[in-house]
């Protein structure tokens, strides 16, 4: 296997493991900053990048992609919270039933 394919595979792994949402720093450790594209194909489009350069060893990420990832992550969190709330409601209902059973049992003992 050539060294260039190893480098390519490793950089792809880094991209897959990169933080979702808005990046705070590049894979090299440098802080990221936001900039505006001046290209013909993406005029005015915002992106995050490393101050050290634009090659495959440094971060480049479109800002709109970051926002989509953040919205997806928040939707997943909300879904998980809704599931937790449903489980809590079931637990409360079960506990309320147990309390009623205990009240009924204690009232029955008081009549003896």
From TrEMBL:
Keyword Zinc-finger: yes
GO MF, one example: zinc ion binding
Entry keyword set: Coiled coil, Metal-binding, Zinc, Zinc-finger
InterPro entries the UniProt entry points to: Znf_GRF (IPR010666)
Domain GRF-type stretches: 26-66
This protein's name: GRF-type domain-containing protein
Coiled-coil ranges from the UniProt annotation: 78-105
Spans annotated as Disordered: 1-23
Source organism, top-level taxon: Eukaryota
Organism: Brassica cretica (Mustard)
Keyword Coiled coil among record annotations: yes
């Amino acid at each position: 296997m050539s060294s260039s394919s190893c480098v390519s595979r490793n950089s792809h792994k880094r991209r897959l493991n990169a933080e979702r949402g808005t990046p705070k720093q590049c894979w090299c450790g440098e802080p990221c900053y936001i900039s505006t594209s001046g290209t013909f194909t993406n005029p005015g489009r915002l992106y995050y990048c490393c101050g050290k350069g634009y090659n495959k060893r440094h971060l480049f990420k479109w800002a709109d992609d970051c926002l989509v990832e953040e919205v997806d992550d928040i939707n997943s969190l909300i879904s998980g919270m809704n599931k937790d709330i449903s489980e809590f409601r079931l637990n409360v209902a079960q506990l309320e039933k147990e309390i009623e059973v205990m009240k009924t049992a204690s009232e029955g003992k008081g009549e003896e």
